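Supplementary Methods, section 5.1.

A reviewer requested that the exact input to the structure prediction be made available. We therefore reproduce it here, unchanged from the version used in the analyses.
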Amino acid sequence: MTGALPLADRFQALADPTRLRIVALLRLMELSVGELAQVLGQSQPRVSRHLKILADAGVLDRRKEGSWVFLTLAEADRVDPLFRLIDDWADEATQTLFASDAARTESIRAERAEAANRYFAGHAEVWDQIRSLHVAESQVERAIDKALGNRSLGRLVDIGTGTGRMIELFGPRSAHAIGIDRSSEMLRLARVKLEAAGIQSSLRQGDMYALPLADQSADSVIIHQVLHYAHSPAQAIAEAARVLAPGGTLLVVDFAAHEREELRERDAHIRLGFEDEAMTGWFAASGLEIDGIDHLAGGELTVTLWRGIKAAIPQRRAA
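The structure derived from this sequence is encoded token-by-token as follows.
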């Protein structure tokens, strides 16, 4: 790399058949290093060297999920002009190679789906037990839809995305959707579901107390059935508020306070629901004003939705 001309460095990074194939594959879907090696028919060390060059040039990002490393393209405003150039200039031989690589990704999708089905089958009974204690999921999801309002969600972040259900429902209403979860297994499950639904998203492994996102990088944040696992709900809400832009919306969906102690022992719940007063205080301490609370009774547990708005930055008066 020259170091003196970043644009030249970027073109130099792309001036390799394998690296062009990698960029074309990542246009289709996020892939791990091992999956890329499988599609390209090359060794992982060799593929990793190509990925480092592309990452250094700012073309792609690398994210670690457990023992896996996933690759995704850089922001759309950076790579979209690149793809317009590729689409305009790609010759027949290049297009044929890209199509052949794309066809081989179907085996990756099938392997992911099989692994996801195994994981879901092993945990479905636990999830079904908890769902049986409250109103139907369809009722909860309608309430979430109503709380989010009939508007574009802008940059959407789903904290503790799990199977990706919130992004499946509301990703199409967003400009860009990001799902974050600590579990690499859950992210793989979500990735399969969202790809099958044709929903564009970015899934990242991360902690709700230290989100891998910049300040004010989201317009809407959802924390759905996650806070009862939190040692410090106040810290999780403060971190969600950090990434919200002024005027952005945080929606927390969780259980109202209850006394089902067996959920601590059986399902690792740390918090037995939340009182409105406590949630209102945590929102306020994070610069959020709660403007809507909805209690969904009808089961042994009540599901509550708390919606808050981040205060807009006050405009400075002219001198």
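The beta strands are 31-32, 60-65, 68-73, 154-159, 174-181, 202-205, 218-224, 244-255, 288-296, 303-310. These observations are discussed further in the main text.
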